[in-house]
Amino acid sequence: MKKLKLAILGGGNLGTSLAKGMISSGQYAYDEFIITEKRDSRISYLQSLGFQVTTDNKEAVGNSQLLVMSVKPQQFESLSGEIKDAVGPQHIIISTITGVRHKEIESAFGMLPTFRIMPNTALEICESMTCISYKNTTVEIEHQILSIFGKLGKTLIIPEEMMGAATVVGACGIAFALRFMRAMSQGGIEIGFNSEMSQLITAQTVKGAARLILETNNHPEREIDKVTTPQGITISGLNEMEHQGLSSAVIRGLITSFNKLENL
Questions:
Q1: What pLDDT is recorded for position 1?
Q2: Is 67 helix (H, G, I), strand (E, B) or coil?
Q3: 73 and 100 in contact (C-beta within 8 Å)?
Q4: To 5 degrees, how large is the angle CA 247–CA 220–CA 153?
Q5: Whole-angstrom Cα distance, residue 4 to residue 21?
Q6: Whether 200 contacts 131, CB under 8 Å
Q7: What are the chain's domains?
Q8: pLDDT tens per residue across span 113-168
Q9: What pLDDT band is residue 4 in, cutting at 50, 70 and 90?
Q10: 145: Cβ–Cβ under 8 A, 6 or more apart, which residues?
Q11: Nearest partner of 103 among 74, 80, 85, 131, judged by Cα
């Protein structure tokens, strides 16, 4: 299948993570795609990494077939207005923009193949969880886009109405998981490890826990039962965390983020 010329419109954290992932996964070389960015400091940073960068969104669109819109929600209107005349029937549109629906993309550009994706910044190491909703596409294009993101981690096709939930669990969720890791690492320091040792132990332990769930498909409680012996230290620690509201705090945090997203 012919490789699609790629433009990443928006060189922020997510756009940069995608660009790094394209290189890490071996799908694109540095000279095979372009990133657009307006901020001088960000342009210098991206160029220092070896990426091709331009400030001209229309030029990037005109030289590409696969357009990844990766800007803030409030920038969608200005971006779509800027590139509308350069977008044609040869283009496939991918949007990472939170809250911008298929109907709004269709209103801006017409009945083009459109993919709404919600990855996270682990794109850059090819470990993203990417949820995808699509419209106006063909089986061939669908398989091509899924193949691209399948090499950047795991993918899941979901209905568009679930994109908000996917944003909170998959994209915001990486920050929630990292905050837990920071707390665990800090606790390790308090009981005797230096910061480097505690961070390493924490990171590998969390990685192992994630792989157990992914590779066995067991419920987390089933794996917890394997390490919680009667009157043991693990169950004592878990119960204290629950007394202090661990599960409740995580659930409330997710719901708070979701409600804010719904009210945007």
A1: 57
A2: strand
A3: yes
A4: 100
A5: 16
A6: no
A7: 6-158 (3.40.50.720), 166-262 (1.10.3730.10)
A8: 999 999 999 999 999 999 999 999 999 999 999 999 999 999 999 999 999 999 99
A9: confident
A10: 92, 94, 115, 132, 134, 137
A11: 80
